[in-house]
Structure formats: C-alpha cells, structure tokens
Amino acid sequence: MGRTGTVLAICLAILGPGCRHQDRSPSEADRVETLQDQNARCREKLQQALLEKDQLDKRLRTLRTAQIAQKIEHRTRVEKIAIGRSSNIYDRNDDGAAETLIVYVHPIDQDGDTIKAFGRVDLQLWDLDRRPAESMIFHTSFDGEDLRKLWSAALFENNYRLTADLSGRIKYTEPLTVKVTFTDYQTGKVFTQQKVIKP
Predict the structure, then answer these.
(1) Contact status, residue 174 vs residue 127, Cβ threshold 8 Å
(2) Distance of alpha carbon 12 from alpha carbon 122, whole angstroms
(3) CB neighbours of 108 closer than 8 A, spacing ≥ 6?
(4) Cystine design at 143: which of 5, 57, 87, 120 (Cβ 3.0–4.6 Å)?
(5) What is the rounded distance in angstroms from the CA atom of residue 66 to the CA atom of residue 173?
(6) Terminal Cα distance for the chain, rounded
(7) Sheet containing 136-143: which strands, arranged edge to edge?
(8) What tens digit of pLDDT does each residue of 76-100 get?
(9) What is the Cα–Cα distance from 152 to 159, expressed in whole angstroms?
C-alpha cells in the first residue's frame, strides 16, 4: 500500500464512525419521539388515575360519614327523664323540721332503661300557691363531673341522687313542686320533668 492508500485508510477510519452516526441519527430521533409519546400517554394515564383516586376518596369519606351517622343513630342515648317516687324533703337531723331536699333523677334511654348519662341537672323547688314572682323558692345545679359523682347504683334502682340543704329557707307544711331540667351533653337535648311532693 502506498502513501496515498495509507492516508485514505486513516481518513476512512476517522470519518467512518461519523458517517455511520449520521446514518443512525434518524432512527434515534424516531426513538426519542416514540419515548416522548409514551411519556405523554403515561402522564395522561397518571392524571386519569389521580382523578379516579380523588373520586374514590370522596366516596369513601361519604360512606364513612354515613356509617358514623348510622352508629350514632343507634347508640344508647337519653330519650326522657323521670323523678323518683322517693323524692321529697326529709328531716335528716331529727329536729322535727324537714330541711334536706333529696331528688332521684332517672335518665332513660330508648329501651326504657335508666342510664348514667353525662350532662347537667338544674333543680328547682316551687310553691305554686305564691305569686308568680315569688313562686320559685329554691334553685341549684349539678354539672359534669360533680353530677357524675352523685350516681347511685342499687340492686333495684339506678339514679342520680341529688341533695340540697333547705335549712331556714322554707316551712314545709304544704305541697311543693320539684322541677328537674336535664341537659344531655352527648346530644345537646334538654329534658324537663316535674313532680309534686307532700309533707
């Protein structure tokens, strides 16, 4: 091989890969375009999947809310209250004068059972024979934790046993009216009951 042939061989060796690279360029451009198309389709699928996930999350929240509401609807709750038969004013110190008001309060659920409901009790004592402005002769309240401590569980009767000292406030010689208002902290409902007591 002469000098010219050697130079030509070297040029082909140098330029050959470049020429082959130029031959591959269109196919690589096609591959890039294909990959870009695939990427765009993947993004569309991702957006669709995120949209479907958002819709499913909303449905799940709705179902959970409905289930919670259903559970709340069927939970034990106060439906009414009653004042116990033994509620009255008693002579606790045996001095011949009744001075201690004892009122038994029964929160009653939807099945007719007395339950220990958390709430507030407003207790009033009325003399309805007096003028309206003077007819309420005593008022007190029992709230939250203080009320909880007054729960009495006996063999035949469960109730809140509320007591109040009336010493020097009234002369218990005629019938009076006990009024109880119970505010249920679970539902926010207010229940009222009253009872006539006699000496």
Answers:
(1) yes
(2) 107
(3) 78, 79, 80, 81, 82, 114, 115
(4) 120
(5) 56
(6) 142
(7) 136-143, 119-126, 176-184, 190-197
(8) 889 999 999 999 999 887 777 788 9
(9) 5
